[in-house]
Specification:
The chain has 19 helices and no strands. The protein is mostly helical.
């Protein structure tokens, strides 16, 4: 049997998780309303630090060490557990003050229950890194599938039992408990704790820049939620969270899988720069081919999607969702060039870029949040395009990757996606009122997919040819298979 590629494993994992979570959200959102999701978004501002900073930093540091030893794993696990315990205790103690800041007393018990999550999250760093070092993604996918489904079932049952926001609390808790338990069960790595100063220094060398980078990325994601929550309240934050959830789905499906593998594959260029331009152009093109049609197509059908899917309580989220979708497109440049910088051991430049991204995002949020949700979302969505010059500059200086390469790698997919979005929007206007909203949504998506696939075959035959070859081989393979 042909070996499944690492990118395919990551894509399958993200595809299942995002599709399942969107389907789950489609059921829960009309029943729970924006405020419940806004409250959870506020909690994740504080709880998510360990999930998005400590765990990912620990994983990346362990991946970056060339000659790994068991003491590296045990030291990282110990350091992360101590840090997570301190963070969880602080959340528990300061829960009343946090709730008072947002004028939401309901946050106190929610924060205290979820203060245990940081400890669970950081325990996955060591087995996660062990799998990724070997490009062995099957255990990571398996634990994700089981934990997401189990947590989702719990959340759905509690939603129908009228538990309100607590359905989301226990959904997140069950998912993370199973996540860590299943991963340690599947990975052949002994669970050990202990501290070695020498091994900590190795980890610190790679981990410090990544700690800064991930800390800034976490801040860029969560601080705007905090600011919007302060100015606009939990319900408006719930609408913004929906827009962010939809755009994050595209990020996780189209951008993250190729980036997750590329940043490891690019380690070959740390000492030999030959071929890095062609490889980076390939990464840019392949990420763009998936990302741009999802962003532009989703923006075109978003009003119809909301009408078909959600009730009137969510109507204010249409324009923010469109804006956030368009705001994902510049991240193709950010992620692809960051993979090149990481592969060539320029983690400090990634940390600098992440710091600038966070500072600018905080400033944009503070300035524009008082002006309302739509204006604030527009400013937040425009920011990645304006700051894309930073990774472009670093990639040119330290990797020899010119600005023209970044543009060339994305131009044809962008052209195809723009034409497709125009066709979809025109068809939607022409048919609206003649058929039901559900049938219209399915029709325009189908036409958009066919239009885009045709354009890609014309504009990027080198990208389309391998896909078409695999499709043609499947019937033959089935015909000549066992039995």
């Amino acid at each position: 049997m042909r070996r499944i590629s690492p990118t395919s494993w990551v894509t399958a994992q993200n595809l299942f998780k995002q599709v399942f979570m969107i389907a789950l959200f489609a059921i829960q959102a009309p029943l729970l309303g924006p405020k419940a999701f806004g409250l959870i978004a506020l909690v994740m501002v504080f709880v998510g630090f360990c999930e998005y900073v400590l765990e990912i930093t620990g994983t990346d540091a362990l991946i970056s060490i060339r000659d790994i030893e068991p003491q590296h794993y045990s030291t990282m696990t110990t350091v992360n557990v101590v840090a997570a315990a301190i963070m969880g205790a602080a959340i528990f103690v300061f829960a009343p003050a946090i709730a008072g800041n947002f004028h939401e007393p309901q946050l106190i018990p929610i924060l205290r229950v979820m203060s245990a999550l940081p400890m669970l999250t950081v325990l996955t760093a060591a087995p996660n890194a062990a799998c990724r070092r070997d490009l062995h993604f099957q255990p990571l996918v398996t634990r994700q599938l089981i934990s997401v489904v189990a947590g989702g079932v719990v959340g759905l049952v509690l939603t129908f039992m009228d538990y309100g926001v607590w359905a989301l609390v226990w959904q997140a808790t069950v998912q993370r408990v199973l996540n860590v338990a299943i991963l340690w069960k599947l990975v052949k790595l002994p669970f050990q704790m202990g501290f070695s100063a020498r091994h900590f220094q190795d980890l610190k060398h790679f981990g410090t820049p990544m700690l800064i980078s991930q800390g800034m990325s976490w801040g860029a994601d969560q601080i705007p939620r905090y600011i919007l929550g302060l100015f606009l309240g939990a319900s408006e934050l719930g609408l913004f969270s929906l827009a962010s959830r939809l755009s994050d789905t595209v990020l996780q499906l189209a951008v993250s899988p190729r980036y997750a593998v590329a940043r490891i594959e690019m380690r070959r260029f740390a000492e030999n720069r030959e071929g890095i331009q062609d490889f980076t152009r390939n990464v840019l093109t392949h990420i763009s081919v998936l990302t741009f049609p999802l962003c532009l197509g989703a923006a075109a059908v978003m009003p119809l999607l909301f009408t078909t899917w959600l009730n009137a309580r969510w109507a204010g989220g249409v324009i923010p969702a469109q804006l956030m979708m368009l705001g994902i497109m510049p991240y193709v440049t950010h992620y692809a060039l960051s993979a090149a910088l990481m592969g060539t051991n320029n983690q400090s430049k990634i940390a600098f870029n992440a710091t600038v991204q966070t500072i600018t995002l905080v400033l944009v949020s503070i300035v524009f949040a008082p002006m309302g949700l739509i204006i604030a979302t527009a400013a937040i969505a425009c920011r990645p395009l304006l700051t894309a010059s930073i990774p472009v500059y670093f990639a040119r200086k330290y990797c020899g990757l010119g600005t023209r390469l970044a543009i060339q790698g994305q131009l044809r997919p962008l052209t195809a996606a723009a034409v497709m979005a125009g066709v979809v929007y025109g068809l939607e206007i022409a048919l609206r009122g003649h058929i039901s909203d559900g049938a219209l949504l399915v029709s325009v998506i189908a036409v958009g997919a066919v239009t885009y696939a045709t354009l890609i075959c014309v504009l990027l035959p080198d990208v389309a040819k391998p896909v078409l070859s695999r499709v043609r081989r499947r019937p033959d393979s089935a015909a000549t298979g066992p039995g």
